[in-house]
## 1
Amino acid sequence: MRQKSNTSAILAIYRSKYKNMPNTYYQDKTVLITGGAQGIGLGMAQAFAEAGANVVITDKDEEAGQEALKRLKGQGLEVVFIPCDVSVESEVQVLLQQVEEKYKKLDVLLNNAGIADPFVGALQELDMAVFDKVLAVNLRGPLLCSKYALPLLQKAEHPAILNISSTRAFMSEPDTFAYSASKGGLEALTHSLAVSLTKERVRVNAIAPGWIEVGEWKKESEKYTPQHTEQDKEQHPVGRVGLPQDIAEAALFLCSDKAGFITGQSLSIDGGMTVKMIYH
């Protein structure tokens, strides 16, 4: 008869052995985070820097970038800010040149930069210039960054790319064409890059966040105190709205060697919201 394992005893041993052991995986690793000055990007920047990484934040918003730099350096973290519009190829080239000059290699690329759909309205009224701008930042940007980061990623021992998509890639509210299309494209780009970069040893995955509250992770001029109703919380089976830390913790795992057998995958982090049937 197979002996029944004592799960409680095993967990107790694990905790006593490992709870005080520092996570050293990201020591001396270089991590580039696009759109890293606010929101989810800033949350990931803090998490990776706290884990010991050399973090490079890039963002088009220089005001937000300088505030993020001050915030993280004030905590004694190793962070650099380089302004860049990821939809502009020449700026992306310069960005990666600067990363190479300072750190010689790149271990992790976090393609997080994105803009919300500035147009919500009927299809007949859609301005294609607006549509093109959203796709330029949200889809062209990750492709450009991956392209020019590749030579630096190849110098790393366990290189990884992580794309921050959205559950809007799989579901929509009415009249939000550009954002949904851009995130759906990013999901496809993720598995395309994963199978294309196998010889370069680069793993590529995506996280699709749901409702993540970023009010306290904005620059000072846009910061606000979140107010969530009970209905807001109850839409999520876990009973709350998400936080940037929820995404950051998953990113730390997916970009580490602990996830070495995971590539081409997309992880939805939404508190279960997209699997709950809602009748309102």
Note: Residues 103 and 146 are 17 Å apart (CA to CA).
## 2
Amino acid sequence: MGIEIERKFLLSGDGWRGLVERSETIAQGYLVDAGAIAAGHAKSSVRVRRSGELAWLNIKSATLGIERQEYEYPIPLDDAERMLADLCDGLLEKHRHHVMFEGAHFEIDEFLGANAGLVVAELELPSAGADYPRPDWLGREVSHQVRYFNVNLIARPYTQWTADERES
């Protein structure tokens, strides 16, 4: 069984930018989305993701917290392009920056389009209680706030959030 243990953080500064080892642009859409999950019609999200010449199908359990079931499979790029265009209700785009800090691999997503302005760092861990470095640019943890889940950012993008939602 595939298990993802991931913590998600807002950023409190740009000190990470000088540590970027590589970046990529990602586009993704959902075949089973936030609406189906919220209505109780699905126990997982099903995502199509494209980055460069590669594409994947991803299934992630719709559970709150840092530990979730996750399965990911490569698919042909042409299939992904067709699914994104014809089967997904909306597209999420972001620049993903890969940063190493004290042996930890942070994936920092700068969202584009309707989610512009949102920057989130993700850190995958070997266990829920694992220690991890906390650089000064790592801000407030938002792992348990569902509005920061990518599946929800299509249905309710960051640019539509109130000031209170951005601060809480």
Note: The two ends are 34 Å apart (CA to CA).
## 3
Amino acid sequence: MTQPEIFEAVQDDALLSASFWVNIALAGLSILLFVYMGRNVKDPRAQLIFVATLMVPLVSISSYTGLVSGLTISFLEMPAGHALAGEEVLTMWGRYLTWALSTPMILLALGLLAGSNATDLFTILVADISMCVTGLAAALTVSSHGLRWFWYFISCMFFLVVLYVLLVKWPEDAKANGTAEIFNTLKILTVAMWLGYPIFWALGAEGIAVLDVAITSWAYSGLDIVAKYIFAFLLLNWVAKNESVIADMPSVGVDRSGASGAAPADD
């Protein structure tokens, strides 16, 4: 199908197109709100948290515009063994681009809030991007049904690395730096929402096809609303009110013992 034909197909499905337009509107409102909330923030670390978090709705509004226009959507014929084998299924591969660009910003903001060292921060960001890219591979692989699920398995393994840092490593850092209360709230929200994505992938048309494309799209969009915009508001509201706590945190470094960054050389 040509791009205009895909665009028409999306617009003809009111439920599907609404799942895109709602997020475009919410992302736009979030951008304006977050810029206003950060107008008086002066501390460099707090400013970086704001910038990283602001990138989330900026990426989202671009991505959802790509989806609603048909630019980042394709119809792919499912391979033998799939529940819809031989049928052309609408694949919203643009969502994976969104996640590959926006979720690292969420984790960067969380890492800065917790007071993460550079090693843990690098590890979780690489694992997260790898999770999104291998998820994209699972969605686009039509040569083999088994390989689709193998890509899905690899993506889930990277997700486990992300969960390990979020649930084991960073809570210790947040406790040591006085941000445990807000970090734990955001950690629970993030983990709960992010677990929904692989579940709906497996249940949707790309997996076992229990849910149709429009329902799956709304499931993703609903998760995005909570995991991105509500998450971002809670985080930025706390940072704006507790900037002094953020300002007192050590710089990002490699060593957990407190020696952060590069020490000045002895003369």
Note: The longest helix spans residues 145-177.
